[in-house]
Specification:
Chain lengths: 247, 200
């Protein structure tokens, strides 16, 4: 078994080159003089280095003469676009496409959620499919509530006809039912939303009596032909909801 | 030690910086291919021999030398001049060779033998046989070493680099270079003892 000192000496022997005699520390040289095992190791390392040096002499010193493939390779055109750029551009395009899709879906959802309020504000009435009994026909909402003089005559509103959206076979399969009579809500008295300001009320004048709540009255709009009901008092369901009155 | 080997070591251990090398580098950076050709002629031998000592295959060594110079040409702007250009080129080649050996170890191939030295001019068949035997023995012993150990053997014992150059070429400290060289030489000695003992 090798001693620990011999292991340390072997480190110096392995690293020593042709000038090993001068480079070795004094304590290593003293050990070499007294240790036959390390002397044999020294000879083995010398022989190993000698063989490696001879092997290095046998190796070809350079590539074959006239070997210039470097020019060919340098002249080889490089790719205009690297694969990293392709991957990056693809990712950006996919992200943009996904963002556009999400934005479109978000717009659709917002439209669906805001459909009643837009209807109340005089927006575009959504198209209904014929065959749905309660929503088969309706009266379109008026434009945005604008305070107008109730005494002015109002243009008669027209109900938008419902266009069938179902395909032809399904549409034909539906029974041809006559449209039910239109129902409108007639309020006897428009509801006062904001109470009168206290600044306008003088101390001498008595406070006005609170108005009675609006009592909706259902009346047949058709085939009523009397035309007695002023058009201004015809509240559409959506209009009434927007005004905070009856529904 | 053989006088011829000693002269070779002395010749390879001294690497004076060639005159005008910095000018050649600047011209290469400007795209002058003639200047790069001059650098190629100056350093291709050192890079080729370093790679060949690691991969032990001249065809692979040629390809890797070409690849090393290509990478050097593309990365020449990153060369700061702290080390010698030769050391920098050898470093690129050694790393390529180590990666090649690792890749080849995972996918071994049949290595082709190559004719070195003498050739038709060698008229002494006995000397040629001894030389071939020596070459095969050392080659097998080196091939048994791990790639990093092969690299230190090649740089120190074949290319004659000093420890600081080896540290720059291998990207480690001088102490690591010494420890790696100690282990490599010990393994090489043990391997050669086994091969020579078996052949005798």
């Amino acid at each position: 078994m090798k001693r620990l000192l011999c292991r340390w000496v072997e480190y110096y022997l392995a690293l020593s080159d042709e000038d090993m005699e001068r480079a070795l520390p004094a304590w290593v040289r003293r050990h070499l003089d007294s240790c036959a095992h390390c002397q044999a190791a020294l000879e083995a390392y010398r022989h190993t280095l000698d063989m490696v040096h001879q092997y290095a002499q046998l190796l070809p010193s350079a590539p074959p003469e006239g070997w210039r493939p470097l020019e060919v390779n340098l002249a080889r055109p490089r790719r205009a676009v690297s694969w990293q750029q392709v991957v990056f551009a693809t990712g950006v395009a996919a992200a943009l496409l996904w963002a556009v899709v999400l934005w479109q879906r978000g717009v659709v959802l917002v439209d669906e959620q805001n459909a009643p309020s837009r209807l109340a504000q005089g927006g575009i009435a959504p198209q209904r499919v014929e065959g749905m009994p309660k929503r088969q026909s309706f009266v379109s909402a008026p434009p945005a509530p604008v305070r107008r003089n109730m005494s002015e005559p109002q243009e008669p509103r027209q109900a938008h006809p419902v266009t069938p959206q179902l395909p032809a076979p399904a549409n034909r399969a539906l029974p041809a039912t006559p449209p039910p009579p239109k129902q409108v809500v007639v309020a006897t008295q428009p509801k006062q939303v904001n109470p009168p300001a206290a600044a306008h009320v003088t101390a001498a004048e008595p406070l006005p009596e609170p108005l009675a709540p609006v009592q909706p009255v259902l009346a047949e709009a058709s085939p009523s032909s009397s035309g007695e009901v002023p058009e201004a008092y015809i509240l559409q369901p959506a209009y009434a909801a927007a005004a905070g009155g009856v529904e | 030690m053989d006088a011829r080997v000693w002269e070779w070591r002395v010749a390879t251990s001294e690497h004076p910086r060639p005159e005008g090398e910095q000018q050649l580098i600047e011209r290469c950076r400007a795209g002058d291919m003639e200047a790069f050709g001059a650098l190629w002629e100056q350093h291709r031998s050192a890079v080729f021999r370093s790679i060949l000592g690691i991969v032990n295959n001249p065809q692979d060594a040629e390809d890797l030398t070409q690849e090393a110079f290509l990478r050097a040409y593309r990365a020449l702007n990153s060369f700061r001049g702290e080390a010698q250009l030769r050391t920098w080129l050898v470093r690129i080649g050694v790393h390529l060779a180590i990666d090649h050996v690792k890749r080849k170890k995972a996918h071994p191939e049949v290595s082709l033998d190559w004719d070195v030295g003498g050739g038709l001019a060698d008229i002494d068949p006995h000397a040629a046989a001894e030389r071939n035997e020596l070459r095969e023995t050392v080659r097998k012993a080196i091939e048994a070493l791990p790639p990093h150990h092969r690299a230190v053997i090649v740089l120190r014992d074949m290319e004659g680099m000093d420890y600081s150059e080896m540290a720059q070429a291998l990207g480690c400290s001088v102490g690591s270079v010494k420890l790696r060289l100690f282990r490599a030489r010990r393994l090489l000695k043990q391997r050669l003892e086994v091969l020579l003992g078996g052949s005798r």
